[in-house]
Amino acid sequence: MLLTLDLNDPRPLHEQVAGAIRRAIGDGSYAAGDRLPPARDLADALGINANTVLRALRELRDEGLLEFRRGRGVSVAGVPTGRALIVQRARDLLEEAKKYGYSRDDLIDVLKELP
């Protein structure tokens, strides 16, 4: 799993990690039943605290995307719905727009202009 974090992103790191994992599952990099790398390995690869990764994994478990099994690690329980993926991408787009000085309403206006 190739995850990257944007250190300039104002969102908390656990939200960025959860979003990256959510996208990886939605994009088909991981299918239902696939195991994720251990949280410590993910944390080391990202250069962040393992507790931050665990917080993201628990959030995804609470959404029903991941399943924790003692002795077996963390596996993908299901694939996010189209709406969940769109919401995540909309959040990412809004954060990107804010970096360029656009507000939520500005972004909505841009979307309304699209065919």
Give, in order, the helices and strands.
Answer: HHHEEHH
Question: What summary fits the major beta sheet?
Answer: 2 strands, antiparallel
What's the CATH architecture of the domain at 13-81?
Orthogonal Bundle
The side-by-side strand order for the widest beta sheet comes to: 1-2
Total count of strands: 2
At the first level of CATH, the class of the domain at 13-81 is: Mainly Alpha
Quaternary status: single chain
At CATH level 3, the topology of the domain at 13-81 is Arc Repressor Mutant, subunit A
In whole angstroms, the N-to-C terminal distance is 35 Å
Domain HTH gntR-type: 11-79
Pfam family, one: GntR
InterPro entries: HTH_trans_reg/aminotransferase, Tscrpt_reg_HTH_GntR, WH-like_DNA-bd_sf, WH_DNA-bd_sf
Keywords: DNA-binding, Pyridoxal phosphate, Transcription, Transcription regulation
